[in-house]
Amino acid sequence: MKNLVAGTVAVLVLLAVMYLVPSKIESLVTHYAAEDNTAAWQMDTELAQDGLFDPLRGQTPVTSSNPPPPAYHYATNTGPIARNYLTQPPVIPHKIDGYDINMRSNKCLSCHSWRSYREWGATKISLTHYRDRDGRELDDVSPLRYFCTQCHVPQLDARPLVRNDFRPVASLDAR
Fold first, then answer.
1. Can you give the pTM of this predicted structure?
2. Residue burial 95-109, b: 16+ Cβ < 10 Å; e: rest
3. Could you report the per-residue pLDDT of 16-63, keeping only the tens digit for each?
4. Alpha helix locations (H) across the chain?
């Protein structure tokens, strides 16, 4: 049933696009049939000017090179960063380049384990990281939670690639 609904929605969106922007259909065909990228770039530019498409390359033709992106900087030991939703894993407020996290060692645990967090002034990892999938408490970090960067990411000063109107839940507004 889900696939039927998704398929119907896709067809309706396609029909709406064809109805609302019929002059662009020919451009789409040209875009995908172009032997060189010039026609594709022109079509992308037209769609961007119409507000229908925002290419990540901006106005740079695909036959040219973009300047390198700006160098982003990691947050610098700023302390805990506020969360946006209740179950969001905390983001990492410092650089982690060169941190080994593998089956033999986990650099994060040298500061954030319950054994050493006080010594380093670090946030200790949650008790939930010491439980297995059945909720039993373990003596050490659960293998399910051992690889920190599968949930936690370093915070950068980069602006979002897309506009984001997300607002945190009311219970987090009183931060």
1. 0.55
2. eeeebebeeeebebb
3. 666 655 555 455 544 444 445 555 555 555 655 555 555 566 666 667
4. 2-20, 22-33, 38-49, 109-112, 117-120
Domain 70-175 belongs to what architecture? Orthogonal Bundle (1.10)
SS3 174: coil
Owner of token pair 């050490």: 140
How far, in Å, CA of 5 to CA of 153, rounded? Answer: 35
Tens-digit pLDDT profile for residues 96-153:
888 999 989 999 999 999 999 999 988 899 999 999 999 999 999 999 999 999 999 8
Which tokens sit at 141? 């970090």
